[in-house]
Amino acid sequence: MVGLRALRRVASELRCDVAAARNRDPAAKGVSTVEILAAWPGVHALLAHRVAHALHGAGVPVLPRVIAYVSRSATGIEIHPAARVGRAPFIDHGMGVVIGETAEIAENVTMYQGVTLGGTGFATGKRHPTVEANVTIGSGAKLLGPIRIGHGAKIGANAVVIHDVPANSTVVGNPGHPVRVEGRRPEGPDADWVHLPDPIADAIKTLSARIAELEREVGDLRGRERRVEAEIVALRPAQGPNPAGG
Predict the structure, then answer these.
(1) Domains with residue ranges and CATH for the chain
(2) Could you tell me the pLDDT band of residue 245, with boundaries at 50, 70 and 90?
(3) How much is the pTM?
C-alpha cells in the first residue's frame, strides 16, 4: 500500500511537471504530452528524482543514488535523492544544474541551465539553499549555503548569491546585490535578464556625479574658471528587444 501511494504521488507530480513545461517554455506551446515526456530533459530529471526521492524516503539503499547517477548521465542535471522539490518546478535546458542534498525547493520554481544550489565548506546538517515559491533563477546562477530565497524573487544570470534574498526582489552581480524592479512586482517566471538593474553601474554613476560636484567646489574656492562637465553615460543602457517576448 505504501508503494502504491508513492506511485500515485509520483504520477500526480509528473502531471504537474509536464504542465509546468508547457506553460513556461515557449518551445512547448502546442506540443503533445507524449513529446514533452520524450524530449524534455528537465522533465526526465524531475521524474527520476521523484522516484529516487521516494525510494530514499523509504530507506532503500544504493538504488536512489544509482537512479540519480543515471539521470545525471542522461540529462546533465544532478539532483541529490534527498533534496526536496515541490510541485510544478521547471528546469529549462538544464545542462549543468546541480541541486544539493539539503536543498529545498517550493512550488512553481523556474531554473535555467547551469544553476547550482550548493553548499559551502564541509559542515554537516542544513548546508544548501531553501528556495520559496514562484522564484526564477537565471542561467549560471550560483546559490551557496543555507540561505533563503524569498517568495517571488528573481536571481539574475551568473549571479553568485551567498546571503538571504528578500521576497519579490531581484538579485544581480557577484556577489549578488538585491535590487527592486521599479514599477512592477517581480512575480513569476521572467527571462528578461537584459533589462535587470545594475547596482554597480548605478554606484559608479553616483560616484562620478559626486566627484564632479567636488571639482566645482574646489574650483570656486581657488577662483578658477569652471570647466565644462563631461556627460555621465550609463555603462549598460537598457535598450533592445525583450528576450522574454514582452
Answers:
(1) 2-179 (2.160.10.10), 198-246 (no CATH)
(2) very low
(3) 0.74
